[in-house]
Write a structure and sequence with these properties.
Helix content is about 45%, strand content about 10%. It has 13 helices and six strands. Helix 10 (about 240) links the parallel strand 4 (about 225-230) and strand 5. Helix 1 packs across helix 13 (about 310-320), helix 4 runs parallel beside helix 6 (about 130-145) and helix 8 (about 180-190) packs across helix 9. It starts with 6 loop residues before the first strand and ends with a helix.
């Protein structure tokens, strides 16, 4: 690249097929709204017009969503995916149970109890039932989880099967079996494609994209003044943590600052354990976590996070000379 501007890289998470230009514009507009919320109006045009940074939206969604690809999303779960999804849902419910104890949040605690009962029944009967039966039971678990007040209305357009099938993408990315590992390699190559290691890189990653970014940044050779993680499943514990490469998990050495944001109503996240569970880099950099409270429906979207001034400000500051 010929310019000397810094680079801003957006790394998306789970979901359906995306349109690169459309999503790039939406993320930038959300970041501009966050700049307005942070009273940094002078940065809005610089962001949206590309004066502040060369902006890349790394779109790897087609690798998951085309039929016949390594991450085929043809509408069915494969047998090897069911144990991972059960373990992932178990971790999510464990984290939520600590966030919403019965004495302080009885309504939320009842939802967790009902989902836990369904999950335990599915796990206990796994040997006696086929994959299809177990998958239907796991759909019941995610449908119950969508009763949380913060996301109840989102169930009008995001049903339990949609949530489960998108969560399966996490397991597909982390599958390290020889042929399946090709998917992760292809995704990281897509994320790193076209970056200039001679210029500073600011990375904003969301959901599964935080897992992808973790591994990609360990491969990247350039300087990263800021890595931001939004709605990250890295905090869900062993189900994700033990599958990361390299291991033991540590902040990438080229990252100068790591900020992690989470929303209490984001059912994909759980509590903020990154600073405790992922080791600092050799220079002592570790995750600094902050909670945000989003408005409206379905808080597990990158744009919901980016609209917060507390999220937008450090991105803009890292991009400015």
């Amino acid at each position: 690249m010929a310019t000397g501007k810094p680079q801003l890289l957006f790394v998306h998470g789970i979901g359906d097929l995306r349109h690169t230009a459309t999503d790039r514009r939406r993320w930038l507009e959300a970041l501009a709204a966050g700049a307005r919320d942070a009273e940094m109006a002078d940065a809005i045009s610089a962001l949206t017009q590309g004066w502040l940074a060369d902006v890349t939206f790394a779109n790897y969604s087609d690798l998951f969503n085309r039929r016949g690809a390594q991450g085929d999303a043809g509408g069915e779960l494969h047998e090897h995916e069911v144990p991972f999804l059960a373990e992932l849902l178990d971790s999510m419910l464990e984290e939520l149970a600590e966030q919403f104890p019965f004495e302080s949040s009885p309504q939320d605690a009842r939802v967790i109890r009902d989902a836990r009962f369904q999950l335990d029944a599915a796990v206990q009967e796994r040997q006696a039932q086929g994959v299809g039966d177990i998958a239907r039971r796991l759909v019941g678990v995610t449908t119950t989880m969508l009763r949380f007040p913060g996301v109840r209305q989102a169930a009008q357009w995001m049903n339990g099967w949609a949530v489960l099938s998108q969560l399966a993408q996490v397991g597909r990315y982390l599958d390290r079996r020889t042929r399946k590992a090709e998917l992760g390699t292809a995704i990281r190559a897509r994320v790193l494609d076209g970056l200039d290691s001679d210029r500073p890189l600011v990375v904003v990653s969301h959901s599964l994209g935080t897992v992808v970014a973790y591994e990609a940044l360990h491969e990247y050779e350039g300087a990263v003044p800021l890595w931001m993680t939004l709605g990250s499943p890295l905090a869900l514990g062993a189900v994700v943590l033990d599958r990361l490469v390299p291991t033991p998990a540590a902040c990438p050495a080229n990252v100068a600052s790591w900020l992690n944001f989470w929303d209490r109503d984001d059912i994909v996240v759980g509590r903020p354990h990154l600073a405790d569970w992922i080791h600092p880099s050799r220079s002592g950099v570790k995750a600094v976590t902050e909670r945000v409270d989003s408005r409206g429906l379905w808080t597990h979207t990158a744009t919901k996070y980016l609209e917060h001034g507390t999220v937008a400000r450090p991105v803009i500051e890292a991009l400015r000379p």
